[in-house]
Amino acid sequence: MPRAVAVSMWSVVFLLIAIVLVFAGIRFGTDGPLIVTGTPAEGDSFELRYVENPWLAYLHIVPGVLYLVGAPLQLWRRFRERHFTFHRRFGRVLLSLGLVSGVFALAFGVPFSYGGAWQSLAAAVFGSWFLVALLLAFRAIRGGDVRMHRRWMIRAFAVGLGVGMIRVWVGIFAGFQILSLEESFAPAFWLGLTMHVVAGELWLWWRPNEDGLPRSARASVAA
Ligand code: HEM
């Protein structure tokens, strides 16, 4: 892969992870003191749902953050090739974390969405896609199909990263006062996560295989 492409791609990945970490930190900082002291959140505040449903919310956020921080190591080819045993063991841990986060994305995100029914629908659609991708990645590697394992893991990671892109769209809509904060959430979920599913598919189309050769090079090798 051209170095410039790799550097740009990883920069975007780490920027989006950093955005998610900032928002997770804000959640801990805002909800934590209220949950620990048993203080109720204000009736119309954003944090109300997190403070009233801490188990559902934090069984989504904490494993999700750990999954998102750990996954780049699994996707980094050179590291994977050099530490294959670690890749397998750590993969099981990350898979479990991703599955727990995905299940609680549905359990918390669908009934308690801030932005209403359209956001709930997005959480149901993309949360299910995230879970299906993780499960199919696991099934593929159990069956020895490394190629499909890679493809489904990239699809799952693309959706997980999309969580950062949702915050970018919320920032644009609410920051430029195009929509209120509450109205921003549903379109931000649909836009952010659709963009990431499409980006994942484009990546897989451009680099369909593990061998590191882009589609164009593979065509010329085959000819
Ligand atoms: C796997 C990595 C993930 C991480 C690290 C993560 C992290 C977070 C964080 C930090 C929040 C709190 C939001 C805030 O205060 O701004 C949140 C909320 C939420 N997440 Fe995730 N998430 C992940 C995956 C997903 C997936 C795959 C879905 C399903 C589409 C999802 C759906 C939701 C929903 C619906 C909420 C509630 C938003 C609201 O307040 O209405 N998350 N997540």
TrEMBL record:
Entry superkingdom: Bacteria
Keywords per UniProt: Membrane, Transmembrane, Transmembrane helix
Statement: the UniProt record of this protein carries the keyword Transferase: no
Pfam family, one: DUF2306
Keyword Membrane in annotation: yes
Annotated transmembrane regions: 7-26, 55-73, 93-114, 120-141, 153-176, 188-206
Entry-linked InterPro entries: DUF2306_membrane (IPR018750)
Protein name per its UniProtKB record: Predicted membrane protein
Organism: Agromyces cerinus subsp. cerinus
